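User: Sequence recovery, please. Input:
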């Protein structure tokens, strides 16, 4: 959705949704998360694909003001959807997990908005939550350790931990110099690789989708001069075929 004005609150009829190519997955998404993640309003119409939450029109407008580097907004009813993206949101994140990561520590003087609150109140909450990191738990992690934590989460395919790292200001495009990560009981050495390289190499579809939605650089090269797509192309598993589709679609700005 583009443009600078408020997002429309006119909800299309349910019949319009049933005619879409991904109607079953969209119905599952609405059924799993029928209320806005920020104010609990009923009748969600929007999704932040980068944060994995469903939203009402007021809160979607506030999310859009954050910019796509923080929250990428898509209409449930009007936009085209990738089934890979929908599955990633359905099976990895969601409103409850977002709450656990982004708002476990609400300071005195703040409260989570409710449906009846004004758009201004909702916007203040959303800005404080995502732009100021105002409600995450206080954990001080030095930059090198933060990079290693994110790379480890990506290599292990742990989407919840990836989002936790991003909520604690880990750089999605960090390049750990030389680390050994235990993956499924096996020590794996990664040299000069970004979190996206790690997820691509291990074939973790949902981790790749989440990193891509949160600004992972598809052109970044590892110590061997390989991009994430090069890494995915070097493997031939079904998971890597899906990952190649994600990266190519993102590269060509199709559905992502």
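Assistant: Recovered sequence (256 residues):
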């Amino acid at each position: 959705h583009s443009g600078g004005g408020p997002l429309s609150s006119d909800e299309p009829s349910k019949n319009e949704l049933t005619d879409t190519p991904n109607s079953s997955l969209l119905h599952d998404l609405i059924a799993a998360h029928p209320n806005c993640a920020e104010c609990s309003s009923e009748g969600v119409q929007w999704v932040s694909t980068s944060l994995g939450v469903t939203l009402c029109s007021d809160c979607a407008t506030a999310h859009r003001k954050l910019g796509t580097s923080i929250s990428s907004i898509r209409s449930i009813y009007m936009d085209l959807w990738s089934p890979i993206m929908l599955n990633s949101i359905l099976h990895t994140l969601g409103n409850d997990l977002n709450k656990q990561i982004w708002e476990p520590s609400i300071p005195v003087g703040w409260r989570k908005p409710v449906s009846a609150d004004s758009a201004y109140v909702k916007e203040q909450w959303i800005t404080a939550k995502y732009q100021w990191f105002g409600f995450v738990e206080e954990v001080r992690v030095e930059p090198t350790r933060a990079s290693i934590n994110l790379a480890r989460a990506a290599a292990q395919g742990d989407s919840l931990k990836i989002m936790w790292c991003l909520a604690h200001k880990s750089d999605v495009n960090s390049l750990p110099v030389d680390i050994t990560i235990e993956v499924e009981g096996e020590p794996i050495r990664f040299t000069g690789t970004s979190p996206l390289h790690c997820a691509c190499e291990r074939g973790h579809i949902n981790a790749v989708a989440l990193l891509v939605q949160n600004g992972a650089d598809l052109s970044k090269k590892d110590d061997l001069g390989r991009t994430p797509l090069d890494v995915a192309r070097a493997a031939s598993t079904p998971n890597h075929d899906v990952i190649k589709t994600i990266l190519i679609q993102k590269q060509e700005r199709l559905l992502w």
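The longest strand covers residues 178-183.
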